[in-house]
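# step 3/5: fold
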Amino acid sequence: MDLDDTNVFYWQSWQPWPVAAKQAAFAHSRSSFLDVSRNMIDLKMISRLQILATQNATPPLDGHSAAVQDHWPQIKLKNVTRVCNTKTILTANGKFPGPRIVAREGDRLVIKVVNHSPKNVTIHWHGIRQLQSGWYDGPSYITQCPIQTGQTYAYNFTIVGQRGTLFWHAHITWLRASLYGPIVILPKLGVPFPFPKPYKQVPILFGEWFNADPDAIINQSLQTGAGPNVSAAYTINGLPGPLYNCSANKDTYKLKVKPGKTYLLRLINAALNDELFISIANHTVTVVEADASYIKPFETDTFLITPGQTMNVLLKTKPFFPNATFFIAARPYATGSGTFDNSTVAAILEYDSPTNNAFPSIKRLPPLKPTLPSLNDTPFAFDFSRRLRSLASVKYPANVPQKVDKHFFFTIGLGTSPCAKNQTCQGPNGTKFSASVNNISFSVLPTSAMLQSYFFGKSNGVYTTDFPVKPIIPFDYTGTPPNNTMVINETKAVVLPFNTSVEVVLQDTSILGNESHPLHLHGYNFFVVGSGFGNFDHNNDPANFNIVDPVERNTVGVPSGGWVAIRFLADNPGVWLMHCHFDVHLSWGLRMAWIVLDGELPNQKLPPPPADLPKC
């Protein structure tokens, strides 16, 4: 059913509701939630949903009344079978993928995460700005210590100035392989989409399935120094689909549509380590949003989404029953020299039959298949990313910083670390694989959270603030690699005064081979003002920057053998992680942190930590 102004979890009262009213709202929501796969639609996934009492609520940042949602997800283990293999995975309320969150711009969410699992857990609300709520961002040992077994932590934040598709996921080790779910932020009541109103809205999440425990996989990799084993399958809404063993029937996601209707597909790449080309056979779509930011619409039959990115597309179905079914297919875009899951995942697009007799014969025919780009089609990836432009309208302006206070030049890529004494490692030349920003590898997390250490002025032994603004030793970044491939293992951050306008050039390196890297910045959106191949030219390339309508994102792909330039305004105090969204590169140290200082006004300062902030 379509998501209109009446059928979502949305309240305008700050007062607690009577029990009967809660039950009525809950019953209404049960029948009118988002149209998603069967294993995601059971509202038992939210074990408690209520309006917070007035005395427990704090007003939104803008001071206006808004809805408050209170969720109690239970983190627990569950046995799940995929591709002929049964294993125990971490879930929220026993669901894989996890529960969806539906809110409106301006809503305040209180999400009390209860950890019943034997593993430490944190949850990141990927793409949520977290204005003045940095304690709830979620990356382990950056903004919080983990939620330990038997503990509870209430993530409490307001959605300010955002609407669109985002997602939530675990942000500790490789737990997000199974612990993730969609976030749908609707416009404020009465505010229409800047595109035709869809008949239905459908979240579609792309993920990866590992037959072994993902934590065991990366732990073995870190111990031996080798690359980790790859996934056994990709998934669509948690299901591998008919191209994998044991998956043709109940483990295939089917999107059922009506002829002549417009569907808003909310696409999320929640895969751990793979960018994905995606296409729907014999259909084109109109791209209207990237990372919860509206863009100038354009049509395409194929698109690319990196891990950490989201994309909204309009699918206008054929005006007649087509006498066929169609694959929604995805395969990896792979640029590195390491191993990867070279398989294709598919769901089925299925039209409602006009007669009872027509469809059984159609179902016996194989679905039509789309043509996807080759595995290493970098020209397509680059051209597609360049087509994304902000709407840049009066209502949705592109507030690109026109002047820059601080410039940064960050090299991004892989390297090596020495093997431990008396140990043989399986990385290049007997070393261990590592990854770095400006040759600084943040591979070992601190034992206390950086944000708490910063707030209380106890950074000694936790981090230093001398992260290099450019490479320590310049070299031919995309050419012949240097002889020394070793990284420096340290925990460093960059300090920014409040309201600093920042430009960062992210440069891929060929130290162990050119490779695309999806970089995600916590706490901010940024504008992608430029990109290109080869080494960035500081003298000439800025003249070609787009500072009129660049796409606004929270995750950007650094081109393989190239560079990308981003700009943002440091208007959100706190400690904010920036990292590669390939979890293997994150584990190897491809991350750094920004510390944004308080401003002078009360609404420009980071509040004290909450009383239930987990302790290390």
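# step 4/5: annotate
Helices lie at 19-31, 214-224, 358-363, 378-386, 450-455, 583-587.
# step 5/5: archive (pending)
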